[in-house]
Amino acid sequence: MLDVCVLGRALLPDEYKDTVAGQFIDIMRTGKLVPNGDKDKAMKAVYQLVVGEGFGAGKEKEKFMPLGLDMTTRMSLIQDQLAHAKEVFGDITNGVGITNRVNNK
């Protein structure tokens, strides 16, 4: 992907500096991507899950397999955000459904 990406010559506005988008564009411009994981280990894990061997035995029907150290942090963050939203908005979330259309004309 990095060898076929075409970016404009204009520099990014300062607002993008040190953001994920800015870092991604810098990587695309320089072509220097340093992976933080082992692709062979990841593909072995995917293979084992798909065929139901090794650690994947009995887990073939799972819909989501996070890979990489960064995913542990990301999943915890999202889990915390969802728990907080449920606590704050749970009543309204469950209170906006249509319970009986016939009687609510």
Describe this entry's structure for a reader.
The chain is mainly alpha-helical. It has helices spanning 20-30, 39-51, 69-94. It has two domains: 1-34, no CATH class; 35-92, no CATH class. The chain is flat. The mean pLDDT is 85.
Low-confidence stretches: none
Globally, the shape reads: flat
Distance between the termini: 56 Å
The total beta strand count reads 0
Q: Please describe the biggest sheet, giving its number of strands, its sense, and whether it closes into a barrel.
A: none
Radius of gyration: 22 Å
Number of domains: 2
Mean pLDDT, to the nearest integer, reads: 85
How much beta, percentage-wise? under 5%
Class based on secondary structure composition and strand pairing: mainly alpha
Features:
single chain, 105 residues, mainly alpha, 2 domains
TL;DR of this structure?
The chain is 48% helix and 0% strand. By secondary structure, it is an all-alpha fold.
Topology:
Blueprint: H1 20-30, H2 39-51, H3 69-94
